[in-house]
Structures are given as C-alpha cells and as structure tokens.
Design brief:
heterodimer; A: 17 helices; 18 strands; B: Fumarate Reductase Iron-sulfur Protein, Chain B, domain 2; Rossmann fold; four-stranded parallel β-sheet; 25 helices; binds flavin-adenine dinucleotide; binds iron/sulfur cluster
C-alpha cells in the first residue's frame, strides 16, 4: 500500500493530533538509543498514538488485512533498534497511553496501560508502601510496556529478578486484531499454574508476537531501610572473589555493582563532586530490608571487603548513599567523558556471563579494546554476571565505526564462548538477531514456529529477535 | 559564524546517545507528547540540518520552535549537551536562509532600538486603553509582532504609561557611605512592563551603599533575538553593550532580570560570540554580571535593621528557568525573602517548572503556552498564598495573565519590591 493511502486510512481511525503522517514528522521515529539507529536512517511511513484497546485493534486489523508491518514503541530508550521500523509501515507509539488503571492494595497488584513510565509508577505505588522492584537505569524514561516487551531488569535484579517475575497477566492485541488475556481472564490470583504460560511467552517477546495493551503486575512491600557499602580494590580479581565471599556468608544484597578503572574515571570527570577514589575496581553493595538486618548485613559486608580492599565505606545516611549510588547511575552516559571528542555507543553493551568468569571477561574485553584501539568503559551488575561495556568512539568517523562493529562482534562471540549470553537485559532487537542460532541452536526453529502461528503474515515488528 | 562550526553543533551532536532522559523533564514535551517535541528530537533534527539530510525551511523552524529554551533538558542531560544552544543555533541558521519579513522588522528594527520598542508598546497600550485594538491591528502593529498576537495581546495588558528609564536618573548616588559602584543592566521587560521593579532595585541598592549607574544607551541583552533565530543581531547587541559598559568604571553589573543575567553570563556569551571573541573584554564583563538577589545576598550584606514588618505576606516563589537552570541560583531569592520581616514563604510543588512564558514564546505559541501555564497556576493555587515572587519580567507577565485567567487573586512581585516596601514600611 502506498504511503499516502496508508496515512489517510490511519487518519480515519484516529484523530489528527494522534497521527503523524508528514515526511518530516516520521523522521523523528527513526531512532532509539541503539548504535544501529545512529548510523542508519530507518523511517516508518506513519506513526500512530493509540490510547485504547479498540484503537489498537482497528489499526492491527487494517495492517493485517493489507500486510503492513507494525512496530510497537514505548519511550524508545531501547538499545537494540527494537522500536524502530526496519521496513517502513506503522509505528505504534504507546507512550501517551499511561493510565494507572487500578492499584489493588489488598491483593498487592497494580494494573497499568503500557505507556506508564517506570519511575512514575513507583512514585505512585510508594503512597501504598508498595513497589514494582525491577529497576532499569532508564527508570525515569522507559515505559512499563517496553519493560515487559524487553523483560527489562536492573541494578537490583540480583535479589529481585527481572520484569517477568512480576507480570501476573497481560492483555495482548494479536497481529490479526484479536484480543487475548493471559494469566486468567478474570484472575486476580498471585499464584497460577493453569495452562501453558502465555504470559511468560509474551514477556520478552520484543513486540514480535502482539501489542501489549494492559499489564497486571505484582507489587512488593517497600523495604524500610537501605544501606550501601563501597569498597575500593587494588586488583580486579579481588572484586569477584569478594562477591563470592559475601554470598558464602549467607547474604543476598539487593544490588552488587562493579565499576572498573575506566568507569571510575568517567564518573569523576562528569561529576568531580562525587570524588570516587582512583582504583582498579570499585564494588557497590546495596542491602535493603528491615533496619536491624540492614545494619548487620552492611557491617558484615564491610568486614568481608576489608580483607582485600584498600578503602571501605558503609553508609546509611541518605545523602551519602545517594551520592555513592549516583556515581553508579550516571556511569552509562558519563562514559563518553573519557574522550573529549567521543561518544559512548550502545553496542555489545550488555553481555552476561557466569559469575565465576566475570574477571576473565572484563580482562578479555579490555584486551579487545586494546586490540582495536578503542577505549572501553566497563561496569555492570557483577552480582549476576551482567557486564556493561561502553565503547567510546567518534561515531562520525567511518573508520572508527567499522572498527567498533568488529569489536562488538568479538564481544558477543566472547560471551557465548564463556558460557554466557549476548544480552543479559537489553534484548536482541535488530542488532543481535544474527547470534540466535549460535546461542539457541535448534530451539530457534520452535521460536519461529510459534511466531508463524500467531503472526502468519509476519507483520509484527519484522526483522527482530531471530 | 558558520552554523556547522558553532561549538555545540560541531562538538556536541555526536555525544547524544538518545537515552531520552531529556524527554521526561521537558515542559513542552509533557504537553505535545510525541517525539517531534522531545529535546532528543530537536538534537536529532539539528543533526539532520547539519548533515544536509533536510534543508532549512519554515516547517523545521516550526518543529524546533516547540521549545521554550528553558534549559531544563540541558541541565539533566548526562552527556552534557546544551540542547537549547543547538536549537537556537539551528533557528539562526534557518532564519538566515529563510527569514520572514516581519521577523526582520521586529528583531532587527524594533527590538534593537529601545525607543522604537517603547513606541510600539505605547501604541499598543493606547490601543488597549481606548478600545482601539482594531485600529492597532489595522495599522499592522499587532501583525508585526511574531505569532498569534490577536489572542496573545491579552498577555500584554496593562502596559505602564511611563517606562523605568523615564523615571530614573542616569546616576543614582548611594545613601550614606558609597561602598560600591554598580551598573544596572535595565532590561527591556523591566523597563517597559515592570518599571516599579526598577525603581525598587535602585532604591534598595542605593540604600545599601551602592552608587547605581543606568547607562542611557543600553540596548537589549539579545536573548529574544537568540530565541527568534537572529543570532547575528544578538551578537551586535552584545558588542554594543560591551562598549557601553567597558567605558564605565564599575565594580559589578547587576540586573533584576533572570533572562538578562543569563544572556550576559559567560556561558551564553561564549555561545553568542564564540570562544575567541569571548576571551578578554567579554569575559571580564561576564565576571562582573550578577543577578540582583545573588548580589544582595552573596556580595552585599543587606541592611536589615531598617526593615519594618509590613503585616504578614504569604509568599510562594517561582524559579525562573533562566535563574534556576541557567545559573543555578535558587537559594538566594529565597534567602532574601527570608530576611524580610512578616514574609511567610511557602514552597509550591515543582517551583522550578517552566511557566511557559519564555519571552516571546507565549505570543508565538499561545495555546501551548497556556497549557504549560495552567500547571503552574495549579501549583500556586495549592499554596493559598497571596503573593507570588519571581525574578523575571517575562515570568511576571505570564503569571499575572495566568492568575487572571484562573480568577485567583494574588500579586506577582519581584523579591526586591517586597524588600523595598519593607524599607518604606508600607504594605
Ligand atoms: C540510559 C539507559 C539505561 C538503561 N538501563 C537499562 C537497564 O538497566 N536494564 C534494562 O533492562 N534496560 C535498560 N535500558 C534499555 C531500555 O531502557 C529498556 O529495555 C526499556 O525497558 C525499554 O523501554 P521503552 O519504553 O523505551 O521501550 P522501547 O525502546 O520503545 O521498545 C523496546 C521494545 O519493546 C517493544 N514494545 C514496546 N512497547 C510495547 C508494547 N506495548 N507491546 C509490545 N511491544 C512493545 C518495542 O517494539 C521494542 O522491541 C537502558 C536504556 C538507556 C538509554
Ligand atoms: S538527555 Fe542528552 S544524551 Fe540523552 S537523549 Fe537527551 S540530549 Fe541526548
Ligand atoms: S529547552 Fe526546555 S522546552 Fe526546550 S527542549 Fe529543553 S526542556 Fe524542552
């Protein structure tokens, strides 16, 4: 179908101010936070901003009938090009559909529409002493829909796990416009093992199976106390060894983060007032729970750290904690500061390896950086082996772009070789689908069969996942 | 300077990782809610312009124009991108290649000559006062100003008959011993719309041992020109004002207007003049420029023993973007208010959220500006205060308009006005 007709048809379904049908307007939807979309120009034909299940159904029925590709999109903070249309068609911007439908305090759950921003949801839940634990670094901007579709997680995954653990049920508009409810049509149960688990199938499906239009989430009681231990290590290997010792002592912190030297320098350059000590590695442990257990866990962790660390700080003062943790939370984008004319690129940024191989991984990535002459900043969720690598290049220098593509490929292969995965939390999208067979072997065939059953015409987010 | 060579365009675009952090803090995005109005979207479009993927045209100007230049995004951007400067640079680039006649008339003509500007506002005042708006429109006066003025005219209601310049002497001697000699950068907004603020400023400064010089040949700070794509004009205005102030021997250059002090700050002068031209005279000038409340609190020790309580005044303070975000001046206005006996300060929620005024934005984007303003007025109403204090003439005009629209009775004053009243012992 030609662009003009398609735009015209969308204007029949939605009001004018919720259809972007101008060549200039659709250009703004050519990117997310991925490196891929920084170097390629991928424009949709039309962008629509639906705000009801019926609207989504109408759009999907039309698209299905005419075989038009549809790409769902939340806030576009993804790192994999997932929300960008690779072959034109319709982009469904769901970020304005942001109702919190119901907070069911008695049953510890909340029902939301896909566009609710993660931080806003938790601000809202705080009134009820509840929270939705997964906490991506993009909390202040990403949508719950995007989190479900990407099965996002964050700093606290080591204790609280990923989004999937909290999704009790979903409303999904399938590619042909039909609506299903997973997790039980009427269910408000927290425990439910009846039937094939379609909720789990949809979580992490990256928009290739359908459009998530409603989300029933389990909430947890908000912990009363928090504390942070910061420990500075002269040698890289000291860090994973210390993490293991902490686990062995019977403690499960809510977060264990590592910054290597490159990340420490990036943070200090960005915000000198944070003043992290210059070292090979810094570990940040967060513990939460009731005040007495937090005190005990924090001081015990601090003691364990002192065996190897040159400097240890244990803080429960909110201000000090905030600034210690701020160091970690700004690392992602502050990474660019290690090179005045450079920028951090989001590629090969998210591999996950077994805990026992973290130090080996960090060293190997450093080596790869040196091999290609590209500065890399390493940090990540060491507690669950999720390593974030930020290569810093001049993205407008073609030679550097080519080199970084090689570097990233090597990092992905390294992850598979070290018994890990190419992505621990950001997902596959358009950028990692090439590794599907290598990672999953024959299982990819089954994934494709499922996709074909639900989406025989292949219109849902084509070119993603596998 | 060539658009592509401007420092933010040359060095910063590549640093945008499109993380979207700026999306959630932008007051315009909060209303329009699609990517074309996201700060990240603006950075993207400036890149497209730079790379020649799109040609400079009115449509792109319109998209980039959905921005208050409030700097909120820039203060939050983890990559250190001055999104507002990129936007302003692109507006200038488009205007240069595709100017509109009305704009040239206004920003190169009217707004570079204080007398002409005064004349135009007076005519508008006359037109309003005598119910001759039609005539003013017939004369093309309202059409001269950018945007949708007929409706926006309401914002500019009650233009005072006498400007501050006509009420104040060029040199105002210190009362008692002279401690400092300061230049008063009397901006257009204060001069024409809030002359009482200027009178209070001079009164408070002279009472506190300052000799106050108000150069007669001062011109606009250039901020409206930057916002409206007239970067070159802004540059010549800055150079003119530099000449004026360099001739005078001054310890400080004080202004009550948040927009003026941010326009004259080192950061902005670097942007307008470029690194090379900034070094030297302009840098020296920028070092002397200081916001009035910061000057009173940080530099002068304000004489508090002559202050008399003026009955309880319930005040809430609105942070102008150009003070809070552009210069990180948040404490001083509040401290100053705290010195005044009888003032009870109640914080409103999101005190530093933009009011949507932003100079000419409320004139060019009336409806959008009102949507942004409504949120602000709701926050003010929730405090129950009878006085809103703020340090920017543009915010003042906007807030007055909003309070009137909502039928909420409260005065909008500069903290220095409340201070001056306390010196006078008046209500
Ligand atoms: C600075 C920064 C830090 C980050 N930190 C983390 C982190 O710590 N952990 C983490 O997991 N991720 C992180 N991310 C990645 C990203 O923010 C998350 O994956 C997030 O969940 C994406 O949400 P979004 O709303 O931006 O979705 P988008 O990027 O818009 O979309 C992501 C995917 O979901 C699909 N999708 C979106 N909405 C729907 C829907 N309603 N129905 C069906 N499919 C849909 C899209 O098609 C796309 O494939 C980070 C990103 C940035 C920029
Ligand atoms: S916050 Fe900065 S880096 Fe992130 S998208 Fe906005 S401008 Fe780009
Ligand atoms: S300067 Fe203000 S209005 Fe403009 S993009 Fe940034 S936050 Fe939005």
């Amino acid at each position: 179908m030609d662009k003009r007709t398609l735009r015209h048809e969308m204007l029949r379904i939605l009001d004018k101010d919720r259809v972007l049908s101008d060549d200039l307007d659709v250009m703004y939807y050519s990117y997310d936070s991925s490196f891929l979309t920084k170097i390629e120009k991928l424009y949709p034909d039309v962008v629509v901003l639906p705000r009801s299940t019926e609207e989504v159904q109408k759009i999907m029925r039309f698209a299905y009938e005419h075989g038009i590709p549809v790409t769902p999109r939340g806030a576009g903070t993804g790192e994999t090009g997932g929300s960008v249309a690779l072959t034109g068609g319709i982009v469904l911007d769901l970020s304005t559909w942001d109702e919190i439908v119901e907070v069911d305090v008695a049953n510890m759950q909340v029902i939301v529409r896909p566009g609710v921003i993660h931080a806003d949801l938790n601000d809202y839940l705080a009134r009820y002493n509840l929270f939705f634990p997964p906490d991506p670094g993009s909390s202040k901007m990403c949508t719950i829909g995007g989190m479900v579709a990407n099965n996002a997680s964050g700093l606290r995954a080591v204790k609280y796990g990923c989004t999937e653990q909290y999704v009790l049920g979903l409303e999904v508009v399938l590619p042909d416009g039909e609506v299903i409810t997973t997790g039980g049509m009427k269910s408000k149960a927290i425990k439910n093992v009846s039937g094939l688990n379609l909720t789990k199938l949809m979580v992490g499906s990256e928009g290739v199976l359908g459009v998530i239009t409603k989300i029933r989430l389990r909430c947890w009681p908000k912990p009363k106390a928090r504390g942070i231990v910061m420990a500075v290590f002269p040698a890289l290997d000291d860090a994973p060894a210390t993490v293991l010792d902490v686990y062995q002592a019977g403690i499960l912190p809510s977060g264990i983060e590592i910054l290597d030297q490159s990340a420490i320098r990036a943070v200090n350059q960005f915000k000198p007032e944070i003043a992290l000590p210059d070292a090979e590695a810094i570990l940040l442990f967060e513990v939460d729970g009731n005040p007495a257990s937090v005190e005990w866990e924090g001081t015990t962790i601090a003691e364990i750290c002192r065996r190897r660390a040159t400097q240890v700080e244990w803080a429960t003062d909110p201000q000090r904690m905030a600034s210690l943790w701020e160091g970690r939370s700004v690392t992602a984008t502050a990474a660019a500061r290690v090179r005045p004319d450079g920028s951090r690129v989001f590629a090969g940024e998210d591999i996950s390896v077994p805990l026992s191989r973290v130090a080996e991984t960090l060293r190997a990535i450093r080596g790869l950086g040196q091999k290609y002459g590209i500065p890399v900043v390493n940090y990540g969720h060491i507690g669950d082996g999720n390593v974030h690598t930020a290569p810093v290049i001049d993205p407008e220098n073609q030679a550097e772009v080519e080199k970084v593509k090689q570097l990233v490929h090597d990092i992905h292969l390294l992850a598979i070789e070290l018994e890990g995965s190419t992505t621990g939390e950001h997902g596959v999208g358009a950028v990692r689908r090439g590794y599907a067979e290598l990672e999953h072997g024959q299982a990819v065939g089954i994934m494709r069969a499922i996709k074909n059953t639900l989406d025989p015409k292949g219109i849902m987010n084509p070119g993603k996942l596998f | 300077m060539n658009f592509k060579e401007l420092p933010p365009v040359k060095d910063q675009i590549r640093k945008c990782v499109r993380c979207g952090r700026c999306r959630t803090v932008c007051p315009v995005f909060a209303e329009i809610r699609n990517e074309t109005a996201a700060p990240r979207g603006h950075v993207f479009m400036v890149q497209m312009l730079r790379d020649g993927v799109v040609a400079p045209n009115a449509k792109i100007y319109e998209k980039l124009g959905n921005c208050l230049l409030c700097e909120t995004c820039s203060t939050f951007c983890p990559s250190g991108i001055d999104v507002h400067e990129l936007n302003a640079a692109a507006r200038a680039y488009i205007t240069k290649n595709q100017g509109s006649v009305a704009k040239h008339l206004i920003f190169d003509g009217l707004w570079t000559h204080p007398h002409l500007l005064r004349h135009a506002t007076l005519m508008m005042w006359g037109a309003q006062a005598s119910g001759l708006q039609k005539l003013a429109r017939g004369l093309g006066l309202t059409r001269l100003l950018p945007g949708d003025l007929p409706r926006a005219e309401k914002i500019l209601s009650r233009i005072p008959l006498r400007s501050a310049r006509s009420r104040l002497a060029e040199t105002n001697r210190a009362k008692g011993e002279r401690k400092l000699r300061v230049g008063y950068f009397l901006g257009c907004g204060t001069d024409l719309f809030n002359p009482d603020v200027a009178v209070a400023t001079v009164e408070v400064l002279t009472r506190n041992g300052c000799e106050v010089v108000i150069p007669r040949d001062l011109k606009c700070c250039g901020l409206p020109h930057i916002a409206n794509g007239k970067l070159d004009t802004a540059r010549s205005l800055v150079l003119h004002n530099l000449d004026v102030f360099t001739r005078l021997q001054l310890d400080y250059i004080v202004t009550d207007c948040a927009s003026c002090s941010s326009a004259l700050s080192a950061k902005n002068l670097q942007f307008v003049l470029g690194e090379k031209e900034f070094a030297g005279r302009a840098a020296e000038f920028a070092r002397k420029v200081i916001d009035l409340t910061a000057f009173l609190v940080d530099v002068l020790e304000v004489n508090t023993w002559e202050l008399r309580a003026t009955g309880p005044v319930r005040v809430t303070y609105h942070d102008p973007c150009h003070l809070a975000k552009a210069q990180n001046i948040r404490k001083q206005p509040r401290e100053l208010l705290g010195l005044i006996p009888g003032v009870e300060l109640t914080e409103m929620s999101e005190a530093d959220r933009c009011c949507g005024g932003s100079g000419t934005f409320s004139l060019t984007h009336y409806d959008l500006s009102m949507q942004i303003l409504d949120r602000k007025i709701d926050s003010i109403k929730a405090t129950g205060c009878d006085t809103v204090a703020t340090c920017c003439p543009s915010c003042t005009i906007q807030l007055r308009h909003g309070l009137k629209r909502h039928g909420y009775r409260a005065r909008v004053l500069h903290p220095v006005q409340i201070l001056a009243r306390a010196y006078r012992g008046a209500k």
